Amino acid sequence: MAIFQPSAFFAGNWRPEGLPGTNHGIEIQQTLPDDPIGTNPCFVSLFDPASNTAFYSAYKVTPQQAAGLGTFGRDDINKNWRQPPGVAGVNQAYYEAINTDRAPLSKGHMNPLGINTFDKRFMRATFTLTNAVPQYQTSNNEDWQEFETRISNYAKTCGSNTRRGTLYLLTGKSGYGLTTDEELSWRCNTCHPSCRVDSGLLCVARIKTN
């Protein structure tokens, strides 16, 4: 049996290099708690134990998966968020951040639910706090949601007869130009071969535990 290589989620099998702080990140192969040992992951995340958020999540949509996008919806799965393994207090920290008196926050998916609607297991796998950053609620519910819809619609074309390529996506955070209390969520998209989509930037905040 072939051994799964996590690098398969990265275009050209190349992980990002030179991103600040990622040298102490923990790479997590995202599966479900009830998956049998040896089950291939749905995607890969690099978790930042210093901020208790994901550096990034890497995921892809194959032509076969693209053909099934939209098969399932949010109401078809259990949407309970799972705690990071071995890290206490993250869910409570999110609760406190989301209920702040300042701009309301929400849990922002790195690998979004909408790009995984071809398979309920893949959808459920996205609900882990190792695949999330605190994101301003207005951004998550408006601009970012619109952007995710555009990406999902674009992914469907990767399963068409004229464009049968695998879409590789990487979503992460960046602190460029912001204070220490704020970060950015960014998305880099490459459809391989021979297609490309725009990237986007959104404000989020760092999550802290006691």
From TrEMBL:
Stretches assigned to the ENPP1-3/EXOG-like endonuclease/phosphodiesterase domain: 40-210
GO molecular function, one term: nucleic acid binding
Signal peptide: none
DNA/RNA non-specific endonuclease/pyrophosphatase/phosphodiesterase domain mapped to chain residues: 39-210
Name the UniProt record assigns to this protein: DNA/RNA non-specific endonuclease domain-containing protein
